Amino acid sequence: MPNRPSILKKPFQDRRSILYASGLSLVACGVQGQEYNALPAPPRAATVVSSTTYYLTLVVNGQSDNQVVPVIYRNGSYLLESGILAKNHVHLNGQQQGLVDISTLPQVKSRYDASAQQLLITVPDDWLPRQDIAGKKLIDYTPAQSGNGLLFNYDSYYSDPHQGSRSVATYLEQRLFSDVGILSNTGTWRYTQANSGSNATLNSQDGYLRYDTYWRYSDDQRMIGYQLGDVVSNSLTWSNSARMGGLRISRNFAVRPDIVTYPLVQYSGTAAVPTAVDLFINGYKASSSQLNAGPFTLTNVPYINGAGEATVVTTDALGRQVTTSVPFYVSNQLLRQGLSDFDFSVGKVRKNYGIDSLDYDDPAVSGIYRFGLSHALTLSTHGEATKGLRLAGAGADIGVWQLGTLSLSASQSQTDRRLIATSWPAESSVSSLDGPTTGNADTQPIGTNSGYAMANQRTRGRQYTLGYSYYSTQYSLALQRLSRTDGYQDINAYTSNTALSLRADQATFSVSPFGQSNGTVGIGYFDVEAADRSHSRLLNLSYSRSLWAQSSLFLSLNKTLGTSGYSAQLQLIIPLDFGGNLNIGSQRDSAGHYQQQIGASKSAPTEGGLGWDLAYASGNNAWQQADATWKTRYATVQGGIYGPRGEYTNWADISGSLVFIDHDLFIADKINDAFAVVNTDHYPGVPVLYENQKVGTSDKNGHLLLPNVSAFYPAKIDIDPLPLPVDVIAPVVSQRVSVREGSGVVVNFPVKKVLSASIRLLDVHGQPLKLGTLVSEQHSQQTTVVGYDGLVYFSNLQTHNRLRIEQEDRTTCLIAFDLDPNSQRIAQLGPLVCRPIHNAPQEDKK
After folding, report:
1. 679-685 contacts, C-beta under 8 A, 24 or more apart
2. Is residue 499 part of a domain?
3. Where in this chain does the record put each PapC-like C-terminal domain (predicted)?
4. What is the pLDDT of residues 6-47, one digit of tens each?
5. CATH number at residue 65
């Protein structure tokens, strides 16, 4: 029998085991009762929010102003203040005040984005403001300036022909300029001397002859010019200018090069989301802009004319691109919508200009006005009157979609002339005394006296013009017809007793049939019918193209229709390595004579230097030429000979200017328009740059004259401080300056020499002062801190200086030192010992 444990042997152990087992059974029963006999408590529903206030960012059609605003949520709807919605371009359906329930607004949708804490609102695109995005201006507006000064221009020409009289003609101009305009006087002094052995007499035109005297001022903000004195009125394409002595008030667009007067290329569209838009004109990128959602109008950089293609590329936030190509046509004959141009001149008609200094006739008035009614229509009108003459007309320039520009005009004149006859037969007509008349003539007797009679002859005439033009990169076409009746006259014709042509037709056409790189063919036709019914008809053919290494070829043919023969010219221009040109050509005149030409030339550099020109022509009229030009800062000198062999004409010319401005006198090359004087505060040798090109250095007075400055253009003028010594400072090194026409301005660049010193400071123990200790220079009121090794640096010092040092232990010390004013470098001083002053003067403790 196998062994087994006996419970009698282990009574206590077995009893403990039984109790343990019983306990486990009770625990198990309790667990089973909890799992199977009890149910969990039912879930409670979340609290329903019927009204609360959120603070959210509004996003309207994808665009946000990043402003947090209160939004009231009430019974499933979102309410906002009316002012907030109106500010974000949401139409309020007539409600102007208080809270607005977005859900009640038609065409408006809203959605709450809890993760971004935004209220997204969608409105129709046409509710959003239109965005006018213009291309970046190439030139910014800079107010024009003028200094006070005097200018004297001269240009003296000497001629000594083989046969004839020697002569000297000198053009002179005196100009006073200031902020209130310019006062100018021009004229010519002439002297003629007969050659020895010649029977020539002195010229009656010798002496001084005045040209123009006037005061002129241009308001660059309002773009209006005022001129008093000798004036030339402005004209339209179908009218003529008139020269008067009087007053002229006119629009002057030239004073604002930043403004484009003709209609710009426009592209309109709608962006559903914030978008980037790029504009390409004829394949070249013109502008790049960022657009918000909504309608937009894009205007490109306006410096184009004629036909082309605009490509608009829009890119949204996800990188998706849409490309749209739009053809366009830009005409500089038109005015922008709402822009006006005008000219009003009143005074006395000037006659025999260039012959008589003071020949003024009857009072006269002349005026023009143009207005851009739309981007495609510009209206114009013109009127003028003087004693016995009245003229009025109107015209229009019309943009014909992308097909070009159509121009038309009509005007009428009426003249009254008083006729005197020695007899007045009843059956005769006074008009017969003045030659044949047309149906426009109206002659009436006004009285008789002692066998003679007087009558007024009233003549009317009309003028009509019609023109068309189209320009593109491949070809261009221009057509124009002008037609007048016999009696039409304007101020110029009426006061000079000249007759205007009756008809003028012209047509020009140019094309690059094989691409611009293979040359351009031009055709021109001109037909003019004079007042005596004679015709002049001319046909012109030309061809030009670029060849190798910037050389070019030009061929032209001219034919006067109705006559035999023609003229032609062939010219080849080859650039040379030294900056000159070689010119080889052949020409034929209408009589069939040929002439070969060869020449070489080099222009004088703008900054100064030598230029020359040599030429020779063979044939029946062999001709030779040789001249040279020497251009300097002070004047331009020219001279040479020309003419057939043995019959040369010698000539010479010198031109220049004298200028007084900024208490200094300048001798300069001829100044035709505006100029500038750079002032470096009496410091010499400072390099000056004009439009990033070095033009010279300041003289001993710290001045440099820039004689060739374009009026009203915001020019960039710089000085180069790098070559200056270390003890010279220039706080301003670049400026943009716009100069008034005919004036000069002083551009100040403060340049001054300063005394500077690097000083090493020690304490009484011979150790460098602690890093960060405050040090002040008492004369210049400068304060700095001690650097490593006890070093401090001061500039703008004087000959005698004194330092005040505040140490960490609140002790103060004073150190005086002197500098050499003639030193050319930064002084190195020290070591200087800081010895505390326990009883410092009261002023030193400040």
Report:
1. 679/703, 679/746, 679/747, 679/748, 679/749, 680/704, 680/719, 680/730, 680/749, 680/751, 681/748, 681/749, 681/750, 681/751, 681/752, 683/728, 683/751, 683/752, 683/753, 685/723
2. yes
3. 759-820
4. 333 344 344 444 444 444 443 344 444 444 455 666 665 555
5. 3.10.20.410
